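Worked example 2:
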Amino acid sequence: MQRNDRGGGKLSQAERHAQILTLLRREGAVQIAGLAKTFHVTTETARRDLDELAERGAIKRTYGGAANRSLIDEPAIGERERTRSAQRSRVAARAAGLVEPGDALMIDCGSTTSLFAEALAARGLHLTIVTNGLGVATALGQVESCRVVLCPGNYVAREGGLYGADTVAFLGRFKANKAFIGAGGLTPEGVTDADSLGCAIKRAMIERAERVLLLVDSAKFGAGQFERVCGIEALDDVVCEAPPPRDLALALRGNGVRVTVAKG
């Protein structure tokens, strides 16, 4: 296991969480006793760290420790909507403030992007929105000043959206000022997600947008899933509710990505 290299000084909770995720990616599993020794904390503190990461959906709790979250399995959108809703709502509200009247937007399907659509609807701006998400379309379709274009495709009930080759091809017909996407994880290597169908939609939106904004809560930091959507260099903005850990922050800064932290 990686040792604390700060000259005996204790890491912050956010730093411990980031290092736990790094250990899990490398080793597959960790134990509470080992984490307590590595980070020079009590076993109660180590247990709380794992409980909080598990509550965020970042890891799987096991007896006496934790295992890496599945690279290929993602909870259905209804389950994701019940997880860290306060943090994701802060991200959504802050991101809604980055939209300007007259913007043409692409918004992908997801739990955080649905909250973003609700926050954006409350602003009542004149907008055109292209989306594959029913939740996004429902929220913004009620705003008289918004034109909502819903993509065709195969309806996937567990995601509440439309996917497939027809959806990707349809997105190629449009150009957007901004694309707002979510993801299962964000690492220094790039944006990751568990679902290949969703990754294809995100890539299509990235390709057709002048500015790409990723909406993620801090539980996604350091989480690498099955498929890479894009490298960090494809992003223009990351909107989150807590600052990224040092390695991720350096990678974002080095690629000119603006980080906007939504304050509580």
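Residues 77-261 form a domain with the Rossmann fold fold (CATH 3.40.50.1360). The longest helix spans residues 13-27.
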